[in-house]
Amino acid sequence: MDCTNQCLSDRVSALAVSATLAMSQKSQELRAQGVDVINLSVGEPDFNTPDHIKQAAVRAIDQNYTFYSPVPGYMSLREAIAAKLLRENGLTYSPQQIVVGNGAKQALCNVILSLINPGDEVLIPVPAWVSYVEMVKLAQGTPVTVHAGIEDNFKITPERLRRAITPRTRMVLICSPSNPTGSVYTRQELQGLVSVLADYPGIMVVADEIYEHINFTGSFTSLASFPEIADRTVIINGVSKAYAMTGWRIGYCAAPLWLAKGVSKLQGQYTSGASSIAQKAAEAAYNGPQECVQEMCRAFQRRRDLVVSLASQIPGLTVNRPDGAFYLFPQVTAYIGRKTPDGQTLQTSADIAMYILRQAHVAVVDGAAFCAPGYIRLSYATSDDNITRAMHRIADALAGLS
Ligand code: PMP
Ligand code: GLU
């Protein structure tokens, strides 16, 4: 082998680039060239981190929280997370069951790498966030998708879940509120899924609850609150979305003790504890006033109403009304086969997303990145003005197809 040429491992060669981050990068590049791009691609709150949280980080620096932290995170932060789980979710966890990582992304990847052996199957209801399938591949597991379309409000049924289970199924990954669809499972719907999982004690349940607080239904049920599966459920959560802290990179898993220990061993070898300063900020987020969370949620709900009303007026877009997160996931199959003004035929939702970027200067993400070709994802975590301008531009661009 000649390593002056390409000699990436098979593991990394087989990975897809994160489409959400790639599209966002593309839109930033266009903007740097002077193009007025409206970025509805990456999903992150557009709010600044609340001041009391920023102040805690400044204090942490002044107080010299600048050394390595314990691998699973400062005890004070893990206590704050345990208190949050009790206060908001009625769940009892010891700090030892919590491992803080560099964002919910690492927390999730830690859990997958700690549980999955080559060939183990992981059930992923789709549409699903871009990284689930890739993380499972990284662990040499086999992702098995379970489909739900817009006609199902993007929620799988107990029957579909049961049909996908095989003797090799080791894990199911459930995200509610969902990225990329914004769908939220009700307690009753979760109970339906749990009743199936109760029959399969060999399946670990991973609940990605990162959008817990961006939920317009007024109620949230954690999967860990069902006694049938509580001892094999892992919660993934963090501060990125609820507290507008995406850049701080703090997330966690709350898991059975044996798994938390495994996750901590893994993290100890490849990243150590997360940023000491960001951990102190996260602690302030959990222990401090929570009004900021509700305020941001109200803003997202208002924007949801705006984006749904504008998108519903675009002929050919099939739109539902998401109950949480900050994404709209319209079906765009009506435009497949149509011709652009310069004579190209749109053959896939990827072509449509690229056409919208080129023609409307609005960055959106192709649904195929979420295992759902035929859709596009719009993140409406931006100002009302941007949402309105973006939707008018998209409407004009789509109206220009023949
Ligand atoms: N899960 C889902 C469903 C997400 O959308 C995100 C954000 N990209 C994450 C996990 C990771 O969040 P974090 O920024 O905390 O790593
Ligand atoms: N949650 C965001 C998204 O889906 C962040 C980008 C990422 O990590 O994928 O766009």
Low-confidence stretches: none
Distance between the termini: 51 Å
How many strand segments? Answer: 12
Bound molecules: 4'-deoxy-4'-aminopyridoxal-5'-phosphate, glutamic acid
Largest sheet: 7 strands, mixed
Quick synopsis:
The chain is an alpha/beta fold and 402 residues long.
Walk me through the structure.
This protein has 402 residues and is of the alpha/beta class. The protein has helices at residues 10-13, 19-32, 51-62, 75-89, 103-115, 130-138, 158-164, 187-197, 257-270, 276-287, 291-312, 349-360, 384-399; strands at residues 38-39, 98-102, 121-126, 142-147, 169-175, 204-208, 233-238, 250-254, 327-328, 362-363, 365-366, 376-379. The strands form three sheets. A seven-stranded mixed beta sheet has the order 2-8-7-6-5-3-4, sandwiched between helices. α6 (130-138) links the parallel β3 and β4 (142-147). The radius of gyration is 21 Å and the shape is globular. It starts with 9 loop residues before the first helix and ends with a helix. The structure holds 4'-deoxy-4'-aminopyridoxal-5'-phosphate (PMP) and glutamic acid. Residues 43, 103-105, 129, 175, 179, 208, 210, 238, 240, 246, 251 line the site of 4'-deoxy-4'-aminopyridoxal-5'-phosphate.
How is the secondary structure organized here?
Blueprint: H1 10-13, H2 19-32, E1 38-39, H3 51-62, H4 75-89, E2 98-102, H5 103-115, E3 121-126, H6 130-138, E4 142-147, H7 158-164, E5 169-175, H8 187-197, E6 204-208, E7 233-238, E8 250-254, H9 257-270, H10 276-287, H11 291-312, E9 327-328, H12 349-360, E10 362-363, E11 365-366, E12 376-379, H13 384-399
Parallel strand pairs: 1-10, 3-4, 3-5, 5-6, 6-7
Antiparallel strand pairs: 2-8, 7-8, 9-12, 11-12
Helix pairs in contact: 3-10, 4-10, 5-6, 5-9, 7-8, 11-13, 12-13
Bound molecules: 4'-deoxy-4'-aminopyridoxal-5'-phosphate (PMP) and glutamic acid.
Residues 43, 103-105, 129, 175, 179, 208, 210, 238, 240, 246, 251 line the site of 4'-deoxy-4'-aminopyridoxal-5'-phosphate (PMP).
